[in-house]
Amino acid sequence: MIPPHVSARQHLLTLSAAALLLGVPIVVGIGYLVGGAIGVSGDADGVSLGRVLRDGAVWRSALLSLWIAGAGTSLALTGALSIALLLGGASKIERFARTVVALPLPVPNVAAAVAVLLLLSQSGWLSRVAAQLHLIATPGEFPALVLDPWAIGVIATVVWKELPFLALVAVSLQSLRGRALTDAARTLGASPSQALRTITLPLLLRGMAPSVIAVFVFVLGSLELPLVLAPSSPLALPLLIQERRQSLDATSHGEAYLIALLATGLAVFAALVHEALRRDEA
Amino acid sequence: MTPRLSMRALSVVALTLFASAPLAMLVVTSIARGWFYPSVVPSSVDGGAWAELFRDASHRTALLNSVVLAVSTALVGTALALPLGRAAALSTRGVRRSVALLAFTAVALPPVALGAGLQLSVLTLGLGGTVVGVFLAHLVPALGYLTLVFLGVFTRWDLRLEEAAATLGAGGLERWRHLMLPLLRRPITEALALGFLVSWAQVALTLLVGGGAVRTLPLDVLAMLQAGQDQRAAAGALALAIPALFVLGVSRVAAGNTPAVVA
Q: pLDDT of A136-189, one tens digit each?
């Protein structure tokens, strides 16, 4: 409702500016992607959707990216829920733990990737500790935790970076409404595990769903983490797009735009789900 | 010590290690000298990698570009998002949802996909490979994030305060200066911090729209890593992480000093 002291004309103008500033870059960006995919803009030759969908490399890349985003988000969510349940109180030590765990939150992805590489690579710090303990004799004997087929290094970085965000959301939800309902259930005779299973966890998971979707979609689109830590075969989806864009073959450029368009479709779908979940939550 | 308390103490120790070990790794590597495998600690330390980072003219340019881009994205993004978020929050539920959806889409689009489209747009405007073009590209996700921040703030905003001020004769400018800006100090500070961080950490959009001609600190760190210069990469990564941690800390302190709380 527009308050009486705000002019309706000014309000409409600001809203139009919002639509333009937010919408135009997205529409123009997607428009150019479509143009690139069908060969009418940029330096690409048009490609057919069927050809891209029949390309095994695209599916392998998509699966790797979905694995990284799915495993990373699930582990970060598990950690965040544990923190909310174990350390969600107001005592000094719990507040200290929550402050410490928030440290990685603002660290840029590139810096996080470098740190994890130095820790987990075959000549990294963990490998040195293993060598000092005579568990391994050479760096090659240390298990490959970065640039490995399971993308363990990328997933570890995702957990390190995203757990603080999800933990903040989980703790705030728990303090807002989790305790009162759990206490009510306990008063009515529910055992601690029953209250956890039927009240606390479902409430937390429902409240966290929009944030979980957001984390999943950010990780899915991240370029820098797989660039530093993921295997080179198959390539993560953002790297595959980048590789095909830089190819000398103009048809590959069209494929890059089409794959980017498919990734965009996935992100728009995630945005719709995110908004629907947020609306339910509100 | 009860089992629950010892479990809690163990969790705190584990979390402290989990959160700080990668950052500690960066600190030690950036100052290590002659740290050969399999030594767990370096034999000596020096500030060579740091000195080189600031002595090298191309790194200084990259750092300057990063600062200019992050500060301008924070300022312009906040200045634009505040009225946009407010206008959306004062509108009908349908408009609010549409603006939220647009803003989240700007945030959620994979930067490589968004960048590929924006690159062609920016090239058409003749801004490809320029700092201005990269700034415009950084502004897209930043505006998405910040609009969501202000949409949330103004959805919970108590309009009666503004109405009371208007009834008492305060004009639009006076209301903003004496009522709204003091009340909005906390979200504005947080928005400035968030806008700074979105641009400061950006890689894909800089790479695509800057076309390699606009160097920033994250791109330099990646280049150092690919060249096998681990020590310099660690110093560069810390140079990226420290301002980000500082900005978050300052925004929290500033937020804590806010004189009033929005209802």
A: 999 999 999 999 999 999 999 999 999 999 999 998 888 776 677 777 888 888
Task: Report which of B147, B251, B117, B13 is spatially closest to residue A25, judged by C-alpha positions.
Answer: B117
CA dist., res. A69 & res. A236, Å (int): 11
- The per-residue pLDDT for range B86-108, each reduced to its tens digit, is 999 988 888 888 899 899 999 98
Q: What residues of chain A, 210 to 269, have a C-beta less than 8 Å from chain B? A: 214, 217-218, 220-224, 227-228, 237-238, 241-242, 245, 256-257, 260-261, 263-264, 267-268
Of A255, A26, A33, the C-alpha closest to B120 is A33
- Burial letters for B19-43: b for 16+ Cβ neighbours within 10 Å, e otherwise? beebbebbbbbbbbeebeebeeebe
Q: Residue A102 CB: number of other CB atoms within 10 A?
A: 17
pTM, entire model: 0.89
Report the alpha-carbon distance of residue B200 to residue A224 in Å, rounded: 14
Distances (CA, A) of B206 to A255, B18, B148, B201: 22, 30, 23, 10
Q: What angle do CA A240, A241, A243 make, to 5 degrees?
A: 60
Q: How far is B177 from chain A (nearest CA, A)?
A: 16
Contact B128, B122 (CB under 8 A): yes
Kindly tell me the burial class for residue B1, based on how many C-beta atoms sit within 10 Å of its own C-beta (0-12, 13-18, 19 or more): exposed
What homologous superfamily is domain A45-281 in, according to CATH? MetI-like (1.10.3720.10)
Decide if A235 contacts A243 (C-beta within 8 A). Answer: yes
Asked whether residue B262 carries a pLDDT value surpassing 50, the answer given is no
Structural domain boundaries in chain B? 1-46, 49-256
Find chain A residues with C-beta within 8 A of B105's C-beta. 26, 267-268, 271
Q: What would the two tokens of residue B171 be?
A: 């004009």
The DSSP code for A198 is I
B49-256 CATH fold: MetI-like fold (1.10.3720)
How far apart, in whole angstroms, are the C-alpha atoms of residue A176 and residue A171?
Answer: 8
Residue B187: is the preceding peptide bond cis (ω within 30°)?
A: no
Q: Which value does ipTM take for this structure? A: 0.89
B45: helix, coil or strand?
Answer: strand
Task: Compute the nearest-CA separation of A47 from chain B (Å).
Answer: 16
In sequence order, which residues have a C-beta less than 8 Å from that of residue B177 and are 6 or more positions away? none
> DSSP code of A7?
-
